[in-house]
Amino acid sequence: MGSLFRSEEMALCQLFLQSEAAYACVSELGELGLAQFRDLNPDVNAFQRKFVNEVRRCDEMERKLRYLEKEIKKDEIPTMDSGELVEAPQPREMIDLEATFEKLENELREVNQNAEALKRNFLELTELKHILKKTQVFFDERENRDVDDSLTASLIEESVYGTNMMDLAAKTGGQLGFVAGVILRERIPAFERMLWRACRGNVFLRQAEIDNPLEDPTSGDSVYKSVFIIFFQGDQLKTRVKKICEGFRATLYPCPETPNDRREMAIGVMTRIEDLNTVLSQTQDHRHRVLVAAAKNIKMWFTKVRKIKAIYHTLNLFNLDVTQKCLIAECWVPVLDLEAIHLALRRGTERSGSSVPPILNRMETKEIPPTYFRLNKFTKGFQNLIDAYGVAAYREANPTPFTIITFPFLFAVMFGDLGHGMLMFLFSLWMVMNEKPLIAKKSTNEIWNIFFGGRYIILLMGVFSMYTGLIYNDVFSKSLNIFGSEWFVKDSNQAIFRRKTTMLDPKNGLTDYTYPLGMDPVWQVAENKINFLNAYKMKVSIIIGVIHMMFGVMVGLWNHQFFRRRINVICEFIPQIIFMTFLFFYLCILIFHKWVNYSAKADLKPELINEGAHCAPSVLITFINMVLFKSSEKVGECEPYMYGGQEGFQKFLVVIGLLCVPWMLCAKPYLIFKQRQLQHNKFDNVNGGSVMEEGGSAQLGAGDTAAAAPSGGHDEEESFQDICIHQGIHTIEYVLGCVSNTASYLRLWALSLAHAQLSEVLWSMVMRIGLAQSGWYGGIVLWAIFGAWATLTLGILVLMEGLSAFLHTLRLHWVEFQNKFYSGTGYSFLPFCFESMLEAAQNAEVD
Asked: What is its main location (predicted)?
């Protein structure tokens, strides 16, 4: 957890590897996942690097594996994943893998081509069978001269031409020619119209649908087709009809004219279809066996190929020395893991059989290192929330450890309901308890993946919401009377029943004790419940907001001390904390003072009349008068101030707070100007022959002049004009932000009140109707209304209100809290790691 507060210390190392040991060493570093390599050949084209041929070979192997995987999925064959660690194969094993994949691909393509040819032949024979069967009906009708309207689609209408095509042929003594074939069913209407227009009605078309769908040998889809036969007279019409059939992609088949020839052909077709079925079955069995054998190893093969490809991609980032026998690399590694890096390189050298050990040198650099935090499945979700705003600068204080507590707490302040929090807690607990099988399912649902990725965040939000629900004494808009109310009614029952409402006065209707935990349940039935909760939650929101922002300023002090920026401590932190404390923290003290010092029972004692509830001054009016230097007026016998000397003390606080503004604005640019002037004078003295002493007394701290980056990695010195502009913007942003950010925390009050009121409205408008039903049907009505109430509770109060509270909480952390100390200008540490690379590849496949 220590490295979570501040990123790991990183080192830039130079690595020298023998060419024969480079592959094995990089493989071991990939398994370790702790080295981020830099590209030492940025100007070299990707196709001109040393290992480009090996990368191409890996791409080709990946293509073949994807082809095998597609065929395996097409046959719905399950792939086996043993879960065992697959090491990167040696370079010489690439030849064996290539040969295996080449053999499998060729065999599978040959089987597929044979199967496609057999299926095409089978389709042709099936279509011919249907043609012989259907056209037999047509020829029988021709002989019987009986036209069946249910199977006929003639383009010749007797009312137009006055005679049938058959009659015309008989009278003229000519013989009708015909063609028969098969066409897609949806093309029949257009086919008929084209024949009518192109042949001017001088053809006779008969068609019948094939009942069963046929399989397309190319795509494997089921298609519906129809058999047709076209009668015509003359070679000219024959040519025209064949061209139209070709244009509509109709398949024509030879059809004998005599019944005996058609019968013999049908018998032969049936025999060939039976033989083809046998051959097709054997072909499919062989294809299935090949795919089942490949499915057992496909995952392992993918892992091996991807590891080889990743290794050669990384080797392409290296440089070659002049002898072409040594590879030179540069990489960022965590300082704490240097020993593990050495051990990995030693293992790689032993695996390769090289006698020359690798050399790892730590380099001195002024370049800003990457940011690296050691995370686990619990902290990863919270770190993602911070990284969405910006990756922490190198060695900058990380807000994540604090966010683990403050984020669910601020969410719960807005979402506080014991019932709703319990629903959220149970859902997240189910995800946490079943996370391994849920991860194994590899869902492609984006919304589910977001919820599952933040399961630990939701778990804490549910726990904190249950706590604040207890404090608010709110369970699905109802209250729990666990300890018994501290309020009591002195009137008799008859007096209570005679009045519609009863006023409870805290002077004589409240015991000397308070409810042990949270709100007294009597407020649930009070008519002034909203007024009371308004005042309470608004003040609590201000107190939480000021404490949260002051904590952010204190974390900024931790940053300044770590980077030894004394000038920032003197010119930024001190005036900032004074300004915040003297104005806004003082406001919180006034709230506590009012809560503690004023009570209703003090009105019963004449000597404590000024501490009675009716004399309690408004905190808001007091604060406004304080800022405006305006005196408060006495009202009746009540003192206008909470304590003696308050007016003078408040003016003192405001004056000191206002003096902090020019302090923040001018002190830092002035000190930097004087320091640079002093350094310039020292250089002039050196040029004049005097000796410059190192580390003069005017130094304000290392890195003070580099006023920008937290890591102090700049070589460039910021100009004085830029420093003044930057400091002016920073001062204005902080001063105005203290006011606007404090007001922004009032969203805690607003959303909490809205959530409670929406929950109460949903109960009174929906659930109360079901509970009011009586009689035998009351249970049925209650069951239906409870279902509607539960659905609305989950959909609106838990999901929509939860999402709204989540976004507001995120804003409070990003804008109000983190801007006090967090720059977020770093870049992530992305090590060469097989595990993350394979995980990214699997996620890409799922998408």
From this structure: membrane
